[in-house]
Design brief:
The chain has about 450 residues and is mostly beta strands. The chain has helices at about 5-20, 90, 220-225, 420-455; strands spanning about 25, 35, 40-50, 60-65, 70-75, 95-100, 105-110, 120-125, 140-145, 150, 160-165, 170-175, 185-190, 200-205, 210, 230-235, 235-240, 250-260, 270-285, 290-295, 300, 305-315, 325-330, 335-340, 345-350, 360-370, 370-375, 385-395, 405-410, 415, 415-420. The strands form 7 sheets. It has a 6-stranded mixed β-sheet, with no helix packed on it. A hairpin with an 8-residue loop joins β4 and β5 (about 70-75).
Length: about 450
Protein backbone atom coordinates (compact mmCIF):
# COMPACT_ATOMS: atom_id res chain seq x y z
CA UNK A 1 0.00 0.00 0.00
CA UNK A 2 1.45 3.45 -0.93
CA UNK A 3 2.62 5.53 2.01
CA UNK A 4 0.08 8.30 1.36
CA UNK A 5 -2.76 5.80 1.29
CA UNK A 6 -1.44 4.16 4.48
CA UNK A 7 -1.26 7.54 6.25
CA UNK A 8 -4.82 8.34 5.29
CA UNK A 9 -6.12 5.00 6.55
CA UNK A 10 -4.30 5.47 9.88
CA UNK A 11 -5.75 8.97 10.21
CA UNK A 12 -9.28 7.81 9.40
CA UNK A 13 -8.95 5.05 12.01
CA UNK A 14 -7.71 7.50 14.65
CA UNK A 15 -10.40 9.99 13.73
CA UNK A 16 -13.15 7.40 14.11
CA UNK A 17 -11.77 6.35 17.49
CA UNK A 18 -11.62 9.97 18.63
CA UNK A 19 -15.22 10.50 17.51
CA UNK A 20 -14.55 13.05 14.81
CA UNK A 21 -17.73 13.35 12.76
CA UNK A 22 -16.31 15.07 9.69
CA UNK A 23 -12.88 15.20 8.07
CA UNK A 24 -11.66 18.14 5.98
CA UNK A 25 -10.65 16.85 2.55
CA UNK A 26 -8.52 18.59 -0.07
CA UNK A 27 -9.30 17.48 -3.60
CA UNK A 28 -7.66 17.94 -7.00
CA UNK A 29 -8.50 16.22 -10.32
CA UNK A 30 -7.58 12.62 -10.90
CA UNK A 31 -4.39 12.37 -12.93
CA UNK A 32 -2.38 12.20 -14.92
CA UNK A 33 -3.42 15.41 -16.69
CA UNK A 34 -2.02 15.82 -20.20
CA UNK A 35 -1.64 19.42 -21.32
CA UNK A 36 0.16 21.11 -24.22
CA UNK A 37 3.30 23.22 -24.04
CA UNK A 38 2.57 26.91 -24.44
CA UNK A 39 -1.12 26.61 -23.56
CA UNK A 40 -2.95 28.21 -20.64
CA UNK A 41 -3.36 25.39 -18.09
CA UNK A 42 -5.68 25.34 -15.07
CA UNK A 43 -5.61 22.91 -12.13
CA UNK A 44 -8.53 23.22 -9.66
CA UNK A 45 -8.37 22.52 -5.92
CA UNK A 46 -11.21 22.59 -3.38
CA UNK A 47 -11.81 21.75 0.27
CA UNK A 48 -14.83 19.78 1.49
CA UNK A 49 -16.23 19.30 4.99
CA UNK A 50 -14.51 22.49 6.13
CA UNK A 51 -16.50 23.76 9.12
CA UNK A 52 -14.05 26.48 10.07
CA UNK A 53 -15.03 30.12 9.67
CA UNK A 54 -12.90 32.78 8.04
CA UNK A 55 -10.83 32.83 4.86
CA UNK A 56 -9.01 29.72 3.62
CA UNK A 57 -5.42 29.86 2.35
CA UNK A 58 -3.79 27.50 -0.14
CA UNK A 59 -0.24 26.42 -0.90
CA UNK A 60 0.81 24.85 -4.20
CA UNK A 61 4.05 22.91 -4.57
CA UNK A 62 5.51 20.59 -7.21
CA UNK A 63 7.73 17.52 -7.17
CA UNK A 64 9.73 16.99 -10.35
CA UNK A 65 10.77 13.43 -11.01
CA UNK A 66 14.05 14.44 -12.67
CA UNK A 67 15.09 16.70 -9.77
CA UNK A 68 17.32 15.57 -6.91
CA UNK A 69 15.49 17.71 -4.33
CA UNK A 70 12.07 17.34 -2.76
CA UNK A 71 9.04 19.35 -3.82
CA UNK A 72 9.45 23.10 -4.18
CA UNK A 73 6.97 25.88 -3.57
CA UNK A 74 5.15 27.30 -6.56
CA UNK A 75 2.71 29.88 -5.16
CA UNK A 76 0.60 30.64 -2.08
CA UNK A 77 -2.42 32.77 -1.30
CA UNK A 78 -0.83 33.94 1.97
CA UNK A 79 2.96 33.87 1.78
CA UNK A 80 4.57 35.97 -0.95
CA UNK A 81 7.97 34.49 -0.02
CA UNK A 82 6.74 30.92 -0.49
CA UNK A 83 7.57 30.44 -4.24
CA UNK A 84 10.88 28.89 -5.12
CA UNK A 85 13.38 31.25 -6.74
CA UNK A 86 12.81 29.56 -10.13
CA UNK A 87 9.12 30.53 -10.02
CA UNK A 88 9.40 34.06 -8.59
CA UNK A 89 9.74 35.88 -11.99
CA UNK A 90 6.70 34.09 -13.42
CA UNK A 91 4.64 34.73 -10.28
CA UNK A 92 5.52 38.44 -10.36
CA UNK A 93 4.67 38.60 -14.08
CA UNK A 94 1.26 37.01 -13.37
CA UNK A 95 2.17 34.07 -15.59
CA UNK A 96 1.51 31.89 -12.55
CA UNK A 97 -1.35 32.91 -10.26
CA UNK A 98 -4.12 31.56 -8.05
CA UNK A 99 -7.73 32.43 -8.84
CA UNK A 100 -10.00 32.15 -5.83
CA UNK A 101 -13.49 31.00 -6.79
CA UNK A 102 -14.82 30.80 -3.22
CA UNK A 103 -13.55 30.47 0.34
CA UNK A 104 -12.88 26.77 -0.24
CA UNK A 105 -12.17 26.59 -3.96
CA UNK A 106 -9.25 27.89 -6.05
CA UNK A 107 -7.59 27.36 -9.43
CA UNK A 108 -3.87 27.30 -10.19
CA UNK A 109 -3.16 29.05 -13.51
CA UNK A 110 -0.04 28.38 -15.57
CA UNK A 111 -0.45 30.93 -18.37
CA UNK A 112 2.29 29.67 -20.71
CA UNK A 113 2.93 26.06 -19.83
CA UNK A 114 6.58 25.04 -20.12
CA UNK A 115 8.07 21.62 -20.66
CA UNK A 116 9.87 22.02 -17.32
CA UNK A 117 6.49 22.41 -15.56
CA UNK A 118 5.93 18.68 -15.81
CA UNK A 119 5.69 17.03 -12.38
CA UNK A 120 3.42 16.12 -9.47
CA UNK A 121 1.49 19.10 -8.09
CA UNK A 122 0.26 19.24 -4.53
CA UNK A 123 -2.47 21.47 -3.11
CA UNK A 124 -2.47 22.03 0.68
CA UNK A 125 -4.41 24.17 3.08
CA UNK A 126 -1.72 23.91 5.80
CA UNK A 127 1.77 25.02 4.86
CA UNK A 128 3.58 22.84 7.40
CA UNK A 129 1.36 19.75 7.39
CA UNK A 130 2.99 16.66 5.91
CA UNK A 131 0.39 14.21 7.29
CA UNK A 132 -2.77 14.91 5.34
CA UNK A 133 -6.10 15.99 6.62
CA UNK A 134 -6.84 15.18 3.02
CA UNK A 135 -7.53 12.51 0.44
CA UNK A 136 -4.71 11.16 -1.74
CA UNK A 137 -6.26 13.18 -4.60
CA UNK A 138 -4.53 16.26 -3.16
CA UNK A 139 -1.67 15.35 -5.50
CA UNK A 140 -2.04 15.25 -9.28
CA UNK A 141 0.53 14.48 -11.94
CA UNK A 142 0.85 16.94 -14.84
CA UNK A 143 2.44 15.80 -18.11
CA UNK A 144 3.40 18.32 -20.80
CA UNK A 145 2.89 17.40 -24.47
CA UNK A 146 4.60 18.98 -27.47
CA UNK A 147 2.42 21.33 -29.53
CA UNK A 148 1.55 19.52 -32.78
CA UNK A 149 -1.57 21.45 -33.80
CA UNK A 150 -1.41 22.62 -37.44
CA UNK A 151 -3.82 25.29 -38.69
CA UNK A 152 -3.50 26.94 -42.10
CA UNK A 153 -5.63 29.08 -44.39
CA UNK A 154 -5.67 29.48 -48.16
CA UNK A 155 -2.80 31.99 -48.02
CA UNK A 156 -0.45 33.67 -45.59
CA UNK A 157 -2.21 37.02 -45.95
CA UNK A 158 -6.03 37.00 -45.73
CA UNK A 159 -7.44 37.99 -49.15
CA UNK A 160 -9.97 40.78 -49.64
CA UNK A 161 -13.22 39.57 -51.20
CA UNK A 162 -15.70 42.07 -52.66
CA UNK A 163 -19.17 40.52 -52.99
CA UNK A 164 -22.61 41.75 -53.88
CA UNK A 165 -25.56 41.02 -51.65
CA UNK A 166 -26.91 37.58 -52.56
CA UNK A 167 -23.65 36.14 -53.87
CA UNK A 168 -22.31 32.92 -52.30
CA UNK A 169 -19.29 32.85 -49.98
CA UNK A 170 -17.00 29.84 -49.57
CA UNK A 171 -14.02 29.70 -47.18
CA UNK A 172 -11.67 26.89 -46.18
CA UNK A 173 -9.05 26.13 -43.53
CA UNK A 174 -7.01 23.03 -42.75
CA UNK A 175 -6.51 21.69 -39.22
CA UNK A 176 -4.75 18.60 -37.88
CA UNK A 177 -3.01 17.43 -34.70
CA UNK A 178 -0.19 14.90 -34.61
CA UNK A 179 -0.35 14.25 -30.88
CA UNK A 180 0.61 10.69 -29.95
CA UNK A 181 -2.33 10.45 -27.52
CA UNK A 182 -5.97 10.16 -28.56
CA UNK A 183 -7.27 13.70 -29.01
CA UNK A 184 -10.20 15.28 -30.86
CA UNK A 185 -10.39 18.50 -32.87
CA UNK A 186 -13.13 21.11 -33.13
CA UNK A 187 -13.12 23.80 -35.83
CA UNK A 188 -15.15 27.01 -35.69
CA UNK A 189 -15.66 29.80 -38.23
CA UNK A 190 -16.25 33.25 -36.72
CA UNK A 191 -16.69 36.83 -37.91
CA UNK A 192 -15.34 40.15 -36.63
CA UNK A 193 -17.63 42.83 -38.02
CA UNK A 194 -16.27 46.20 -38.97
CA UNK A 195 -16.82 48.62 -36.10
CA UNK A 196 -17.74 45.87 -33.60
CA UNK A 197 -15.68 44.34 -30.83
CA UNK A 198 -15.16 40.63 -30.45
CA UNK A 199 -16.04 37.79 -32.80
CA UNK A 200 -19.37 36.10 -33.39
CA UNK A 201 -19.54 32.39 -34.10
CA UNK A 202 -20.95 31.64 -37.55
CA UNK A 203 -20.84 27.83 -37.51
CA UNK A 204 -18.45 25.02 -36.65
CA UNK A 205 -17.86 21.30 -36.21
CA UNK A 206 -17.51 20.11 -32.62
CA UNK A 207 -15.06 17.53 -31.26
CA UNK A 208 -17.82 14.91 -31.66
CA UNK A 209 -18.28 15.92 -35.36
CA UNK A 210 -21.66 17.57 -34.72
CA UNK A 211 -22.49 20.90 -36.34
CA UNK A 212 -22.53 23.73 -33.82
CA UNK A 213 -24.03 27.22 -34.06
CA UNK A 214 -25.22 29.68 -31.42
CA UNK A 215 -28.98 29.17 -31.07
CA UNK A 216 -29.45 32.78 -30.00
CA UNK A 217 -27.12 34.11 -32.69
CA UNK A 218 -28.14 35.66 -36.00
CA UNK A 219 -26.83 32.67 -37.99
CA UNK A 220 -28.88 29.94 -36.30
CA UNK A 221 -32.08 30.54 -38.33
CA UNK A 222 -30.11 30.65 -41.60
CA UNK A 223 -28.41 27.37 -40.71
CA UNK A 224 -31.80 25.80 -39.91
CA UNK A 225 -33.04 26.86 -43.37
CA UNK A 226 -29.96 25.37 -45.04
CA UNK A 227 -28.57 28.75 -46.14
CA UNK A 228 -25.32 28.27 -44.17
CA UNK A 229 -23.35 25.05 -43.85
CA UNK A 230 -20.02 23.59 -42.75
CA UNK A 231 -18.37 20.41 -43.96
CA UNK A 232 -15.29 18.38 -43.15
CA UNK A 233 -13.59 17.15 -46.31
CA UNK A 234 -11.14 14.27 -46.10
CA UNK A 235 -9.09 14.36 -42.90
CA UNK A 236 -8.06 17.96 -42.39
CA UNK A 237 -10.05 20.36 -44.64
CA UNK A 238 -13.02 22.31 -43.28
CA UNK A 239 -15.36 24.30 -45.56
CA UNK A 240 -17.70 27.18 -44.70
CA UNK A 241 -20.60 27.86 -47.08
CA UNK A 242 -22.88 30.92 -47.07
CA UNK A 243 -25.38 30.72 -49.93
CA UNK A 244 -26.54 34.36 -50.03
CA UNK A 245 -24.44 36.94 -48.23
CA UNK A 246 -26.06 39.94 -46.59
CA UNK A 247 -24.57 43.34 -45.71
CA UNK A 248 -24.21 42.23 -42.07
CA UNK A 249 -21.96 39.36 -43.23
CA UNK A 250 -19.15 41.80 -44.01
CA UNK A 251 -15.99 41.73 -41.89
CA UNK A 252 -12.93 39.63 -41.11
CA UNK A 253 -13.51 35.88 -41.00
CA UNK A 254 -11.43 33.62 -38.74
CA UNK A 255 -10.92 29.89 -38.35
CA UNK A 256 -10.34 28.52 -34.84
CA UNK A 257 -9.10 24.98 -34.14
CA UNK A 258 -9.18 23.49 -30.62
CA UNK A 259 -7.62 20.24 -29.45
CA UNK A 260 -9.45 18.22 -26.79
CA UNK A 261 -8.41 15.32 -24.56
CA UNK A 262 -10.41 13.13 -22.20
CA UNK A 263 -9.16 13.36 -18.60
CA UNK A 264 -9.16 10.33 -16.26
CA UNK A 265 -12.41 11.57 -14.67
CA UNK A 266 -14.17 11.25 -18.06
CA UNK A 267 -14.41 14.98 -18.77
CA UNK A 268 -13.19 16.44 -22.05
CA UNK A 269 -10.73 19.30 -21.60
CA UNK A 270 -9.62 21.82 -24.21
CA UNK A 271 -5.83 21.67 -24.09
CA UNK A 272 -4.97 23.99 -26.98
CA UNK A 273 -6.65 26.55 -29.21
CA UNK A 274 -5.35 28.43 -32.24
CA UNK A 275 -6.98 31.06 -34.50
CA UNK A 276 -6.01 32.42 -37.93
CA UNK A 277 -7.64 35.06 -40.20
CA UNK A 278 -9.18 33.75 -43.42
CA UNK A 279 -10.55 36.64 -45.48
CA UNK A 280 -11.69 40.25 -45.29
CA UNK A 281 -15.15 40.32 -46.90
CA UNK A 282 -17.06 43.39 -48.06
CA UNK A 283 -20.70 43.17 -49.19
CA UNK A 284 -22.32 45.75 -51.49
CA UNK A 285 -26.05 46.03 -50.87
CA UNK A 286 -28.41 45.46 -53.81
CA UNK A 287 -30.92 48.14 -54.77
CA UNK A 288 -33.02 45.84 -56.97
CA UNK A 289 -36.76 46.22 -56.34
CA UNK A 290 -39.01 43.32 -57.30
CA UNK A 291 -42.80 43.05 -57.23
CA UNK A 292 -45.35 40.45 -58.35
CA UNK A 293 -49.12 40.71 -58.98
CA UNK A 294 -51.25 37.68 -59.86
CA UNK A 295 -54.46 38.14 -61.85
CA UNK A 296 -57.13 36.18 -63.73
CA UNK A 297 -57.79 37.42 -67.26
CA UNK A 298 -60.53 37.82 -68.25
CA UNK A 299 -62.42 37.87 -64.96
CA UNK A 300 -65.16 35.42 -65.98
CA UNK A 301 -64.58 31.74 -66.80
CA UNK A 302 -66.89 28.77 -67.17
CA UNK A 303 -66.33 25.15 -66.37
CA UNK A 304 -64.53 23.47 -69.26
CA UNK A 305 -62.85 26.69 -70.40
CA UNK A 306 -59.08 27.23 -70.52
CA UNK A 307 -58.23 29.59 -67.66
CA UNK A 308 -55.34 32.09 -67.87
CA UNK A 309 -53.56 33.25 -64.71
CA UNK A 310 -51.03 36.06 -65.17
CA UNK A 311 -48.06 36.96 -62.96
CA UNK A 312 -47.01 40.52 -63.80
CA UNK A 313 -43.56 41.53 -62.51
CA UNK A 314 -42.14 44.96 -61.71
CA UNK A 315 -38.35 45.19 -61.68
CA UNK A 316 -35.77 47.92 -61.27
CA UNK A 317 -33.24 49.34 -61.46
CA UNK A 318 -30.91 47.46 -63.78
CA UNK A 319 -27.37 46.66 -62.63
CA UNK A 320 -24.52 47.92 -64.76
CA UNK A 321 -22.24 44.91 -64.34
CA UNK A 322 -24.82 42.15 -64.10
CA UNK A 323 -27.68 40.58 -66.05
CA UNK A 324 -30.92 40.09 -64.10
CA UNK A 325 -32.68 36.75 -64.61
CA UNK A 326 -36.29 36.06 -63.55
CA UNK A 327 -37.95 32.77 -62.66
CA UNK A 328 -41.45 32.12 -61.34
CA UNK A 329 -43.37 29.46 -59.46
CA UNK A 330 -47.15 28.95 -59.26
CA UNK A 331 -48.91 27.61 -56.19
CA UNK A 332 -52.49 26.59 -55.60
CA UNK A 333 -53.99 25.35 -52.34
CA UNK A 334 -51.45 22.54 -52.03
CA UNK A 335 -47.99 22.95 -50.55
CA UNK A 336 -46.34 21.53 -53.66
CA UNK A 337 -45.76 23.90 -56.60
CA UNK A 338 -48.22 23.68 -59.45
CA UNK A 339 -45.65 24.85 -62.01
CA UNK A 340 -42.10 26.20 -62.10
CA UNK A 341 -40.64 28.31 -64.91
CA UNK A 342 -36.95 29.18 -65.14
CA UNK A 343 -35.44 32.42 -66.49
CA UNK A 344 -35.51 31.02 -70.04
CA UNK A 345 -39.27 30.49 -69.85
CA UNK A 346 -38.84 26.72 -69.76
CA UNK A 347 -41.23 24.77 -67.54
CA UNK A 348 -39.48 22.63 -64.94
CA UNK A 349 -40.84 19.24 -63.82
CA UNK A 350 -42.95 19.38 -60.68
CA UNK A 351 -44.35 16.73 -58.37
CA UNK A 352 -47.74 17.00 -60.08
CA UNK A 353 -46.16 16.54 -63.54
CA UNK A 354 -48.14 19.20 -65.41
CA UNK A 355 -51.51 18.48 -63.81
CA UNK A 356 -53.63 20.56 -61.45
CA UNK A 357 -54.88 19.18 -58.15
CA UNK A 358 -58.21 18.41 -59.86
CA UNK A 359 -56.52 16.53 -62.71
CA UNK A 360 -56.72 19.27 -65.34
CA UNK A 361 -53.80 19.76 -67.70
CA UNK A 362 -51.66 22.89 -67.08
CA UNK A 363 -49.07 24.69 -69.23
CA UNK A 364 -46.91 27.79 -68.88
CA UNK A 365 -45.48 30.43 -71.18
CA UNK A 366 -44.02 33.94 -71.06
CA UNK A 367 -46.01 36.36 -73.23
CA UNK A 368 -43.64 39.24 -72.43
CA UNK A 369 -40.35 39.71 -70.51
CA UNK A 370 -42.22 40.75 -67.34
CA UNK A 371 -45.31 38.54 -67.66
CA UNK A 372 -45.54 34.84 -66.83
CA UNK A 373 -48.75 32.93 -67.68
CA UNK A 374 -50.21 29.75 -66.23
CA UNK A 375 -53.00 28.12 -68.30
CA UNK A 376 -55.39 25.49 -66.91
CA UNK A 377 -56.98 23.56 -69.78
CA UNK A 378 -60.61 22.40 -69.47
CA UNK A 379 -60.90 23.66 -65.92
CA UNK A 380 -62.99 21.65 -63.49
CA UNK A 381 -64.91 22.54 -60.38
CA UNK A 382 -61.98 21.31 -58.25
CA UNK A 383 -59.69 23.90 -59.85
CA UNK A 384 -61.50 26.72 -58.05
CA UNK A 385 -59.68 28.44 -55.19
CA UNK A 386 -56.70 30.69 -54.41
CA UNK A 387 -53.57 30.96 -56.58
CA UNK A 388 -50.34 32.90 -56.08
CA UNK A 389 -47.05 33.35 -57.88
CA UNK A 390 -43.54 33.73 -56.46
CA UNK A 391 -40.78 35.45 -58.44
CA UNK A 392 -37.04 35.10 -57.92
CA UNK A 393 -34.52 37.50 -59.42
CA UNK A 394 -30.94 36.32 -59.91
CA UNK A 395 -28.00 38.40 -61.08
CA UNK A 396 -25.27 36.96 -63.24
CA UNK A 397 -21.93 38.65 -63.52
CA UNK A 398 -19.18 37.56 -65.85
CA UNK A 399 -17.34 34.56 -64.46
CA UNK A 400 -20.02 33.71 -61.86
CA UNK A 401 -22.82 31.16 -61.81
CA UNK A 402 -25.38 33.71 -60.66
CA UNK A 403 -26.81 34.66 -57.27
CA UNK A 404 -30.18 35.68 -55.86
CA UNK A 405 -30.73 39.40 -55.41
CA UNK A 406 -34.48 39.69 -54.80
CA UNK A 407 -37.64 37.72 -54.14
CA UNK A 408 -41.32 38.65 -54.33
CA UNK A 409 -44.59 36.86 -53.57
CA UNK A 410 -47.94 38.00 -54.96
CA UNK A 411 -51.15 38.33 -53.02
CA UNK A 412 -53.45 35.36 -53.70
CA UNK A 413 -56.06 35.69 -56.45
CA UNK A 414 -59.36 33.78 -56.42
CA UNK A 415 -60.47 31.64 -59.35
CA UNK A 416 -64.26 31.03 -59.58
CA UNK A 417 -65.81 29.02 -62.41
CA UNK A 418 -69.35 29.77 -63.59
CA UNK A 419 -71.69 27.18 -65.07
CA UNK A 420 -71.47 26.98 -68.86
CA UNK A 421 -74.33 27.94 -71.20
CA UNK A 422 -75.12 24.29 -71.92
CA UNK A 423 -75.32 23.66 -68.17
CA UNK A 424 -77.79 26.54 -67.75
CA UNK A 425 -80.06 25.12 -70.50
CA UNK A 426 -79.83 21.57 -69.20
CA UNK A 427 -81.10 22.45 -65.74
CA UNK A 428 -84.59 23.77 -66.77
CA UNK A 429 -84.90 20.97 -69.32
CA UNK A 430 -84.20 18.33 -66.72
CA UNK A 431 -86.50 20.10 -64.28
CA UNK A 432 -89.31 20.24 -66.89
CA UNK A 433 -88.97 16.55 -67.74
CA UNK A 434 -89.15 15.66 -64.09
CA UNK A 435 -92.28 17.79 -63.53
CA UNK A 436 -93.98 16.37 -66.65
CA UNK A 437 -93.18 12.83 -65.61
CA UNK A 438 -94.59 13.47 -62.13
CA UNK A 439 -97.88 14.93 -63.54
CA UNK A 440 -98.27 12.04 -66.01
CA UNK A 441 -97.81 9.45 -63.28
CA UNK A 442 -100.39 11.26 -61.12
CA UNK A 443 -103.00 11.34 -63.92
CA UNK A 444 -102.52 7.67 -64.83
CA UNK A 445 -102.75 6.70 -61.20
CA UNK A 446 -106.04 8.68 -60.74
CA UNK A 447 -107.70 7.18 -63.88
CA UNK A 448 -106.67 3.66 -62.97
CA UNK A 449 -108.04 4.04 -59.46
CA UNK A 450 -111.49 5.28 -60.69
CA UNK A 451 -111.78 2.48 -63.26
CA UNK A 452 -111.06 -0.17 -60.65
CA UNK A 453 -113.69 1.28 -58.28
CA UNK A 454 -116.44 1.14 -60.98
CA UNK A 455 -115.49 -2.37 -61.95
CA UNK A 456 -115.80 -3.47 -58.36
CA UNK A 457 -119.37 -2.09 -58.10
CA UNK A 458 -120.48 -4.19 -61.07
Amino acid sequence: MPSTRRQQCIFLLLASIAGISSIRLVRVPRGPLYRVEGAHTIIPCNVTNDERSGDQDFWWSVFKHNAAIASVGVISTRDSEYPDSSYVPRVRAKEIYIQKLSRTSVQLHLVHLQKDDEGEYECRTDKNSRVYLASPNAKVELKVLTDTLLLTGPSDEPPRLALREGEPLALQCRAAALTALHTHLSVTFSLSRTGHRGRETVIGIGRDLTVQSQEQGMYWARYARGQIGVEKVKSDAYHLRVDHVKPQDAGLYHCTAAEWIEDPDGRWNKILERTIPLAEVSVQANDVKLGAVASVAPATFYRGDSVDLHCNVTLGPEQEDAVLLLSVGWWGADEEPLALVDHRGVSLPTVLRGMSAAGSEVSTDRPSPLCFRLRIHRAKKGDQGLYRCEVTCRAQRQGTSGYQVAFARSEPVTLFLYLSASDTLLIPMVTGVAVSLTVTITIIASVTCCFLRRLAKR
